[in-house]
Amino acid sequence: MSLTRLLHVSRKEFIQLRRDRVTLALIIGIPIVQILLFGYAIDTDVRHLPTAIADASGTRESRDLVARFRNTTYFDPIATAPDESVARSMLLREEVGVAIVIPHDYARRVHREEPAEVQVLLDASDPMSVSAAMDAASAVALDQSLRLSGEAPRVTLARRAWYNPDLESSRYIVPGLLAVILTLTLVLMTVLSVTREQERGTMEMIITTPVGKVEFLFGKLLPYLGIAYFELTIVLAIARFVFAVPIHGSVAALYLFSSVFIVANLATGLLLSTLAKNQLQAMQMAFFFFLPTVLLSGFMFPLSAMPRPIQLVSRVIPATHYLRMVRAMLLKGLPAEAVVPRLWPQLAFLVVVLALAVARFRKRLA
Questions:
Q1: Residues ≥6 apart with Cβ < 8 Å to 286
Q2: What pLDDT score was predicted for residue 43?
Q3: Is residue 160 a contact partner of residue 119, using CB atoms and an 8 Å limit?
Q4: At 94, phi and psi to the nearest 5?
Q5: Share of the chain residues as helix, strand and coil, in percent rounded to the nearest 5
Q6: 89-124: pLDDT as tens digits
Q7: Nearest 10 degrees: CA dihedral of 262, 265, 267, 270?
Q8: DSSP of 78-97
Q9: Considering the entire predicted model, what is its pTM?
């Protein structure tokens, strides 16, 4: 082996790499994004859970108890409810993740040194948040009991985990996998398909025929729409019959609403294909998009554990809204009209990305 020839080959490779600015940017950008995401955004210590307070007692003693819940930093009382039924509705509509219900005779029982039962209702479709909230609530009840009498228990808890009472992780993970699988396959397949046509030069040949550019573009995307619905059906069947994930909501509405998310991912793949020069760059870009989708969408880590700026970023990602929509429809049985607000952010993302993709695609072929 000649060291000189070896160095010449290495020098040539470095020169090619330096000229390939997109690949160079991805090589530098991916590690930086990974470090920032794992080091700054990902935190399994769940805090600041949005909480509704139903204080039927309305006394100094009950307000003192609410203050102790707030001081743990696990609970953020952002809403008040006149009674338990309203608090339950807030949980169902995902306005809050926890509801604390204080009975009307709380103060009287405390003064009589009788056990006072406080209900803590939890949205168990996110088991990680529920575990943290249960531990924090138990600590508050014990501390309050000791503070009141020096003997436990004066304040008791009735904890109810809804929508996933056994805290089975499969009921949380499997519905979320729909968003992850559709994102990975659709973005990757679309970007590779278009880039492959560009590399082979067949795209220009087809466009010289009577087929227009936009017709060609949407004609290529249509088969992936069918593939997406096939994958959706497969994942739903496995979730129901293998993992026993309940399907309480309307499957027809889920199929209908999924079309927005599916087309948004196809548009993303199309936009990336206009930026990539070859299939290698296309795969790197797809991975670059896929990474924050998995980490910041709430699929693996609860959004409430992330810093506020990262939560704002996560709201831009379509998967964030789609997987919450899927979990709400499957586990909670929310009606179609209740999850419509989850569609608007996905639709806005779709319009912006599709407009950019079509504009860049036309410019590239001009």
A1: 184, 187, 188, 191, 192, 269, 272
A2: 67
A3: yes
A4: 65, 25
A5: 70, 10, 20
A6: 888 888 888 899 998 888 888 888 788 888 888 887
A7: -130
A8: EEE-SSHHHHHHHHHTTS-S
A9: 0.79
